Amino acid sequence: xxxxxxxxxxxxxxxxxAATLGGCAAPERLPEAxxxxxxxxVLPLGQRLSITYxxxxxxxxxxNARCIWPxxxxxxxxxxxxxxxxxxxxxQGRPGYMSPALRGSxxxxxxxxxxPPRGMAGAGPTAYPVTFxxxxx
Length: 137
Known about the structure:
By secondary structure, the chain is mainly beta. The protein has one domain (38-136). 11% of the residues lie in helices and 36% in strands. The chain contains two helices and eight strands. It has helices at 2-12, 16-19; strands at residues 33-37, 42-44, 49-58, 73-81, 84-91, 97-98, 105-109, 130-136. Strands 1-8-7-6 form a four-stranded antiparallel beta sheet, with no helix packed on it. Strands 2-3-4-5 form a four-stranded antiparallel beta sheet, with no helix packed on it. The longest helix is centred in the N-terminal third of the chain and has 11 residues, at 2-12. The two termini are 33 Å apart.
């Protein structure tokens, strides 16, 4: 009996974040969709689940400069499950983001949306919108 209880408990442990959404039972899947957000925009995905697009970190080489490293454009997000916040990044050409709280879905940058053009050296930071897709597993 104790072994069965341990197996059941361990089976629920990986879903600790999802447990806040309604216990260890298999929650309803999130819909597959394409989203475009602007900086600081919040995307509600359920009663207690939301994703906030915090902004972009652009270390790409400016158009009017010579660089040894091409840099990258990383989009910063915060996922909130009830009172718990978890940050993550999406970068073009890298794997997307998965979490138990996403109920088996993954988030990836939209490969059909080209990244915004690089800025010029000395120019102030610009705000970049982001387009991403949510896929069910």
